[in-house]
Amino acid sequence: MFGRLGAAMARRRWTVIAAWAVLLLAALPFAPRAGAALRAGGFTLESLPAVEADRTLAQLGLPPSVLVIVIQSQTSARAGQPAFEAAVAGAIREVPRARYVTAVQTHLTDPRQVGADGSVVYELVDLSLSPDDSPAALPPVEAALHQEPGLRILLAGGPAFYGDIQTASEADLRRSEIVSLPLAAAALLLVFGSVVAAGMPLIVGGAAVVVALAVIFGLATLTPMSIFVLNLATLLGLGLGVDYSLLMTSRFREELARRGGGRTARGGTDRAAVDAAVAATVASAGRAVFFSGLTVLLGLLGLILFEFMILRSVGVAGAIVVGLAVFAALTLLPAGLAVLGPDIDRLSLRGLRRGSPRTDGSGAGGSGAGGSGAWHRLAWWVMARPWPIFLASLALLVGLGLPFLHVRLDAPDATILPPSLPSRQGYDLLARTFGEGAFAPLTLAVRTAGPATAPANVARLYDYTRTIAADARVSRVDSIVDLDPRLTKAQYELLYGAPGGPADRFAATVLAATTKGDLTAVTVTTRYGPNDPRGRALVEALRDPDSGLAPPAGLSVQVGGGAAEVKDVVDRIGQDFPRTGLFVFLTTYAVLFLLLRSVVLPLKALVMNVLSILASFGALVWIFQDGNLSAVLGFHPLGYVETTQPVILFCVLFGLSMDYEVFLLSRMKEAHDRLGDNATAVAQGLERSGRIVTSAAAIVVLVAASFALADVVLVKALGVGMAIAVALDATLVRALLVPATMRLLGEWNWWLPAWLERWVASRLPIVEGE
Question: What is the pTM of this model?
Answer without folding.
Answer: 0.82
